[in-house]
Specification:
This protein is of the alpha+beta class and 171 residues long. It folds into two domains: 97 residues, no CATH class; 59 residues, no CATH class. The protein has seven helices and three strands; from the N terminus they run H-H-H-H-H-H-E-H-E-E. Strands 1-2-3 form a three-stranded antiparallel beta sheet. Strand 2 and strand 3 form a beta hairpin. The longest helix has 25 residues. The protein is elongated. The termini are far apart.
């Protein structure tokens, strides 16, 4: 049973059995707020560059909006940030920040990479370059052609994460 089904079951149970007491209501509110806090914390951990670009206050607003938008049929908190890039694209307030969706997708890609995996990513709005500029480690030299689509290879192994820009002919 996923979270949404469980919440619907509980809601039906309590309403069909004469409602809930004030004490139970308080407990359920604490439980719901705890779930929200855990999901917001997961976004905080998974999207540090988005947070840096938007600032603390705006990032909190984005996360709260995403939390309200999010479909709660997901069974794992580990999947919670998967749709943030799409959500950002649909947010009217962020329409002028075209690269933000791409930065979110880069962060999610890296968050979900397993050990010993390689994948590629194409960047057309400069999101990859912006993400790289926010990294503390040494980063590869970036070739910018006015943000013409660039391609990147991510390789994660026991030595860590390696990122390299690749020629479009290699993809």
């Amino acid at each position: 049973m996923n979270l949404l089904e469980w919440q619907n079951y509980c809601s039906h149970y309590f309403t069909s059995n004469g409602g809930i007491s004030d004490k139970t209501h308080i407990g359920l509110n604490i439980y719901q707020e705890s779930i929200k806090a855990n999901h917001l914390n997961a976004l905080n951990i998974s999207f540090p560059v988005i947070k840096a670009l938007l600032g603390e206050k705006n990032f909190k607003f984005l996360c709260r909006d995403y939390l309200n938008y999010y479909s709660w049929d997901c069974e794992s908190i580990n999947e919670f940030g998967a749709g943030l890039g799409t959500f950002i694209r649909s947010a009217k307030q962020l329409a002028t920040l075209e690269y933000l969706e791409e930065v979110a997708n880069v962060e999610w890609l890296i968050e979900t990479l397993s050990r010993n995996v390689a994948t590629t990513f194409s960047s057309s709005s400069g999101g990859m370059e912006i993400w790289l500029a926010h990294q503390k480690e040494d980063i590869p030299e970036i070739k910018l052609d006015d943000f013409i689509t660039s391609y990147w290879r991510f390789i994660k192994n026991n030595d860590g994460l390696k990122i390299e820009q690749i020629d479009s002919a290699s993809t």
